[in-house]
Design brief:
binds 5-O-phosphono-beta-D-ribofuranosylamine, Rossmann fold, 8 helices, 250 residues, alpha/beta, 42% helix, globular
Length: 250
């Protein structure tokens, strides 16, 4: 416990300087926010060399809003940090930023507008059909703001992944960042987990701890957590992919 407090104190003291932890360096990455957050935060399991998949992972992605996690996956693929391809992005909001990102990044995108379906189950049947048509081996819910039903979960057992902005099992459900601020916890973070019928439940694949600073408001904490999400999601998908391929061999 003492150790945890000492780490958090160090993090808080470092934040007073607010700029980078490293001294000025000729290496631009050492001065970037990416580097800064990576040093302040703890990712578990620790990031390792990205595994290669033969053939590479074929993913489907679901998004409802901004789509920054979707873009982080695409960038990780482009940078060879994730050996995968995204066959299809499904969005439920026709005007969402995720759709515009898909257009810009050249990823096929289909709209399944939940307002046009008679029930959650009917929407999920359409999702299953789309992902099955694209022969995806796993589906990533990268900011999918709808509750999914056993229809989708059963179609992709242990192959449906969700990202949530808290250290689960704390702060499940809506506005996890607001919940963490309200609870005045010194550490929050983000989790990537396999989806089970209970919302924001299911086995955790990886987590990143993020300090909550006394100066934080909703926006600053959300942004710090999101920067970690963008690192955590690709490495979690790679971990899941290794499990899928091991299962297939046995
Ligand atoms: C993320 O914070 C994720 O944890 C939650 O929804 C948010 C989506 O953000 N499930 P974005 O659309 O990827 O920017």
């Amino acid at each position: 416990m003492q150790l945890v407090f000492s780490i958090v104190n160090k993090m808080n003291n470092l934040d007073k300087k607010e700029n980078c932890l490293t001294s000025a360096s000729s290496n631009p990455r050492q001065n970037s926010c990416y580097e800064k957050d990576a040093k302040r935060s703890l990712i578990w399991p620790p990031p390792q060399a990205s595994p290669k998949f033969n053939p590479r992972l074929n993913l489907g992605v679901m998004a409802s809003g901004n789509g920054s996690n979707f873009e982080a996956l695409v960038k990780a693929i482009q940078n060879s940090q994730l050996d995968a391809s995204i066959s299809i992005l499904v969005v439920n909001n026709p005007n969402c930023e995720a759709r515009r990102r898909a257009q810009r990044l050249g990823v096929p995108c289909v709209i399944h507008n939940h307002r046009e379906f008679s029930s959650r189950e009917e929407l999920d049947k359409a999702l299953v059909k789309t992902f099955t048509n694209h022969a995806v081996e796993g589906v990533v819910m990268a900011g999918w703001m709808r509750i999914v039903t056993p229809i989708l979960i059963a179609a992709f057992p242990n192959r449906l992944i969700n990202i949530h902005p808290s250290l689960l099992p704390s702060f499940r459900g809506l506005d996890a960042v607001g919940q963490a601020l309200k609870a005045r916890v010194p550490i929050s973070g983000c989790s990537v987990h396999l989806v089970t019928p209970q919302v924001d439940d299911g086995p955790v694949l990886a987590q990143a701890a993020v300090p909550v600073l006394s100066s934080d408001d909703h926006q600053s904490l959300s942004e710090r957590i999101q920067r970690m999400e963008h690192q955590l999601l690709p490495l979690s998908v790679a971990l899941a992919g290794q499990n899928w391929r091991n299962e297939a061999q046995n």
